[in-house]
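Lab notebook, entry 357. We have the chain sequence and a SMILES string for zinc ion, and the next step in the workflow is to get a structural model of the bound complex before anyone spends time on docking refinements. Request logged below.

Task: model protein plus zinc ion, output structure tokens.
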Amino acid sequence: MLFGYPISATHDNWLHDCISASVQTIHAAVDGNKKYPGWPTVLPAPYRKILNLRTGLRDRLKAYNTAVRKLQKLERDALLDALHNENRIADLVSGACDCVTLDKLPKVAQGPASELFSFAFDLLTDLGVRDQQYAKIYASAAEHVCSFCGTEYFDAPGAAREALDHYLPRSRYAFAAANLRNLVPMGYKCNSSYKLASDLLRRDDGTRRVAFDPYNHAKLSISLDASEPFDGVDAHTPKWEIRFDPDTPAVTTWDDVFSVRLRYQRDHLDPSFRGWLSLFAKAARRAGVQANSDAALIAELRRLEEGFNDTGFQDRGFLKAAVFRMLRRHCENGHKRLLEQLRSLVAPPAPLPPITV
Ligand SMILES: [Zn+2]
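Result returned:
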């Protein structure tokens, strides 16, 4: 991803903490051969009043209790391990720890665990927690775009809600379904057309991989410097080489899951390149650039590069900046064909004089 969200947006994680504590209370009761504590006693004391009328939660905690009581101690402990490990989000994405997926847990508890934490996730909306988290993330960024692609705009708080993605999918990591640390605002396309229920922790063959931590991630930059200025999808479109810095293993996972390189090339670079070149030509002519001066052409490329760098993610400025930087560098290295093309764009060859007899 291109940049991270502020960790402070995850601090109001009380519902997840509350349900996790209730699950631990249930396990302690079963282990100690005690009766189910009942509703709302099964909840930690500070949350009983606010959640007392949430009968859906009451029923799902009870169903989880019923399921757990059918299990042996070792099986019950496996559930507690899953509860603990699935919520070590930072350690999981960095590869420092691992956890099992839902299908490896005792069958009788899979449904009840899943339903309990998914219900808690839905409650985040009813209780206003989801909107508070989004408002903090929105307010923290100067540019309101999806950090997974940088090209989808986020609407302001109060508009129809953006997708809130289960970064570790709840179909596999049910106990993390209501943990704000595992919930990230994401643009519609990233969420519904690319990520879907992809497992960021495991490749299709089941092997482990690492991923970005959405709440602890420094800015990533894009470089097109290694692209060839011609002979991509057609003779006059660059052959793109899209690189990210720093190029860590998490970049591979991000690209595999969100098809970032493919989308940048297919949806932005290829279809927009001609338009960006004509933008260059207009700007150069307006600035009175002498087309026969390589230095003047290079200076104009640099001016556009710096200008788009300043606009950042607005209107794909980061991609335009990378394009003009790549062109500038090739020109500085004396790329004859490119310089010739830019010259003819800025000062098209004069039409031939009419033939006189
Ligand atoms: Zn996106």
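Notes for the group: The pocket of zinc ion is lined by residues 146, 148-149, 152, 187, 189-190 (CB under 6 Å). Worth checking against the assay data. Residues 260-286 form the longest helix (27 residues).
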